[in-house]
Design the sequence.
């Protein structure tokens, strides 16, 4: 499902994900439709479920946990870059529980309830992710060094 | 109390809330004085007390907890939009304790000590919050869809 | 070590810290090399170790903890301002563990693994930190008040 509403302000966009909207899939669809080649974002809201992962640097695998409860999305920080030429969303989130304790990690999936409010800033350049042999991950390919 | 200092850089403003300053009230006062119609922000700092809430999606009520201790404000993410024509602050925070454990949720109140440092970006448009029957909350009214 | 790669987009820069790169030292070196006088940033990534502090408002001292494990960097929010005329990095981070629990606070040190992805926005003005007698900290010197 891709149910978001949004409003553009120049190179910034505010997006409201709806109840039932899955964040990673919907933001990827938005980025494809809008031909986003690089963007950064921050957001907050609530979700009814999440799949959150921890990257195990020894096995070089993501360990993913399914979480089925209503959480506050306390922070949602990330970027959109190109992977194999297509927009790829990288996001980390902290999630607040009923007792105010906090869980979080790498976002595999977030299902909004009632909404996620995301501020996204596009850049008019392309940034790609390229495979990194050491970590097994696709890292941002940035040209300059000190 | 409204004790903040600030500096403008075009459409961005850096705000320093002082010891004793209550974040939601002071930022609302700032937004009214400056006629903010939409803005996003992120910040960090320290607080001596907080009222933090969890939105219970079954009862559709916020459950608010009073927290009286010195916390690091690890993340403070949100926006200012118009509700009934007046600036309304929506913020989520993660708070760090002496043992480095983290609590957080929807911000009802934060009392700074010694400071909260907030970066705010204004947009030259108006975004309003409108009532959502399903959730009972006021959600951002954004015009476009995919 | 200062191993980062970066790309500029006008007044914004995306920085990728490499495995083994220490965040505070490397960002300070970047800010010195680039003559940054004020900037804000947000980021995410992973680290293999961290030194994280809690500011004790009674003793007015930072209590610093050494953490030697692989964490997700869930949020990394802060700014760069001038202290004694030189760029000074102020950052708070939330860190995610293997069991998805979250720790965090004031960042003394973060050693990236495999990367930290940071979005930094520079401003073309100088903001300085000045000593605050009450807290014992150096706070942002901002000229305006409501």
Sequence:
């Amino acid at each position: 499902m891709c149910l978001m509403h949004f409003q553009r302000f120049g190179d910034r966009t505010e997006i409201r994900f709806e109840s039932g909207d899955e964040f990673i899939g919907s933001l990827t669809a938005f980025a494809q439709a809008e031909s986003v080649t690089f963007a950064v974002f921050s957001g907050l809201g609530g979700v009814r479920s999440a799949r959150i992962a921890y990257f195990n640097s020894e096995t070089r695998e993501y360990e993913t946990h399914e979480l089925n409860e209503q959480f506050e999305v306390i922070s949602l920080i990330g970027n959109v870059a190109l992977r194999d030429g297509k927009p790829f969303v990288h996001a980390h989130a902290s999630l607040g529980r009923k007792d105010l304790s906090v869980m979080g990690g790498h976002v595999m999936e977030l299902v909004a309830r009632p909404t996620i409010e995301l501020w996204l800033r596009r850049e008019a350049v392309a940034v790609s992710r390229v495979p990194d042999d050491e970590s097994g991950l696709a890292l941002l390919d940035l040209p300059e060094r000190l």
User: Anything to note?
Assistant: Chain B has a mean pLDDT of 96. The interface with chain A takes residues 38, 40, 42, 52, 54-57, 63, 65, 67, 75, 77-79, 90-94, 102-106, 121, 123-125, 127, 132, 134-135, 137, 139-140, 142-146 of chain B (CB under 8 Å). The CA atoms of residues 9 and 79 of chain B lie 18 Å apart. The first strand of chain B starts at residue 5 and ends at 9.
